[in-house]
Amino acid sequence: MSTLPEWAHAHGPVTARARMRVQPEDFRVEEVLGFGADGDGPHVLLTVEKRGANTHWVAGQLARLAGIAPREVGYAGLKDRRAVTVQHFTLNLDRKPEPDWSSAGGEEFRVLAAARHRRKLKTGVLKGNRFRLVLRELGEPAATLVPKLEAVAQRGVPNYFGSQRFGRGGGNVAKAEAMLVGGRRVHDRRLRSLLLSTARSLLFNAVLSQRVASGTWDTLLDGDVLMLDGSRSVFRSEPGDAALPPFRHLRRLQHAASHRSPVGPGRAHERRCRPCHGGRRHGGISGSGARSGASGTGGGAAQPAAAG
To answer: Which residue numbers are catalytic?
Structure first.
């Protein structure tokens, strides 16, 4: 049972329910880097399709096959385990012979393409992700959702962090509180980073929910942190900026959206910590949560979806 609060809905109450992610093929994610391989260099850039596997595990398998340390493997972001995802990895082979990638993986993943590259792929270095989500057992005729879909097309949706960011049943929230408030020491760097991300995401969602409730989630307010679409120009809104183009021309820090994007303190902080812009939200409403042995969301029963 989830311990997360119910975030405010921008387009009215829930009117229909369905089942999503019944099987991995119901959720397909395709990473878009926005650039191609250099064609030369000490690294090899791999395009990998994985099914029912998490990114850390695939990275470890690739490192083992290449005979290199896991730290020599780079990737732009974590992808859902309960899904079929296509993402990119770089491996620093230096002078090592390149493995036969056709023998890599199996049912869990396979290498679709390989090319030489000059640098390691860093977290956040991507243009965005494309998503396809299948909904099953829709509780109402699809036609009843048309008005809300039209509203979404016109206004977009509040771009909340998804439940996967908070661990199974929201369990990582309590762990983050224990670390930040209760003084619990967390020595594992990756777990500590995950719990900090959980806390920032909870704060962001809380602020966004308040904006939704007040009807200002897609309205520019003084002090909002913005990024001009198509650029990396970051600035804060000031009195008089209401005359700027609509939110569909603005991009939220760290994660892009195809229409209007609310902003929040957690996202602004994360953007400043990243080496360059990376979009988890691109070409539509999307999501990609961090995974960890602490409390991931990879397995379990199919999740219900609500339209509201």
So the answer is: 80
